């Protein structure tokens, strides 16, 4: 069986296969990734192989049923031709969205490729598409469903494509935290009209948390607009509760001049978040104890090694990386910021990039005039982004051709209404170039 499409030269699947069969030097964190994701769909509790395989999958997480055999047994060439002909017969009735971290074998069929902010905006601007096939992760498909019309179906090709960081904040724990903050700070605004706490959720969160923000005077941010959103929140609140990614919250607020001593870490597993009353009283940004296992892999010593081996190298990392890594890099920014920085550089530039390997390898192939490499030499993709394989894309598209909608992501209308408020506040906020300097 061929899992690799010949038209995907930058393919991470190809790299992992090459490492596993000894044709390429290097190492991967998960040699099992040479198998199709259907090998992990049934009966394996967890996120699957890749960067987040050690994270705790919450009980009741969505699981993918068995992919029909026709798709499991297909060659790369067969899948390509099935996808192409299904897309041709569906025409503008379907739009395929692809996040930058998707495999090349999937990205090549996407009508829109972008970061989570761009894809959210694009989904909103497609009123004529009957179906949006979202090649990304669950929270992105939920967001697309919230922003699109009631007659449009949003489809996630593999339901097991969640996000371990998003799962680190659940609605019950956030509500408990909120009740404790209300008990301490009350609900009355100060003399300048600012409420005690404004909640801000990263896009990488469930629709329930976005709805919580919408209903509590809060807002959503992505990594491409986090400082604009924090400014928005500070105008309205004395302090911010930021979830689920501690690193994006800390890195963004620090770049805005917020002292670290005013950013306590709320640990939902501990009573009172594990924080003293004094720490809460002094807080400007209360950070949730969540993180991304892909970006946690990047270290200051990788940056030192890159600088030693490549004098003049420009190091750019995603703001989900730990603070020490962002501080040691030349700049930090969203995936879109990284793409644009590379596109704008003079030929012959050398870049060491700290973000997901599918994007880094694609950039290296798209910009042969530069030298571009990943800071982490171990090939370790995002476990859940990697669960979207062309076999699932072929399946959901052929089901659509047959008039059947499978793997639809449907956010209940009450949750969607609150989440839409928080998302529209974000979409109305001016985009920024968070930490791009
Ligand atoms: P972007 O917001 O840059 O698209 O990143 C999404 C994500 O999941 C990063 O890990
Ligand atoms: Fe989630 Fe990290 Fe994967 Fe992004 S890269 S989807 S934050 S686990």
From TrEMBL:
Species of origin: Gryllotalpicola protaetiae
GO MF annotation, one: quinolinate synthetase A activity
One GO cellular component term noted in the UniProt record for this chain: cytosol
Gene: nadA
Annotated family: Belongs to the quinolinate synthase family. Type 3 subfamily.
Lineage: Bacteria, Bacillati, Actinomycetota, Actinomycetes, Micrococcales
Keywords: 4Fe-4S, Cytoplasm, Iron, Iron-sulfur, Metal-binding, Pyridine nucleotide biosynthesis, Transferase
HAMAP family named in the record: NadA_type3
Binding of [4Fe-4S] cluster, residues: 163, 292, 382
Stated name of the protein: Quinolinate synthase
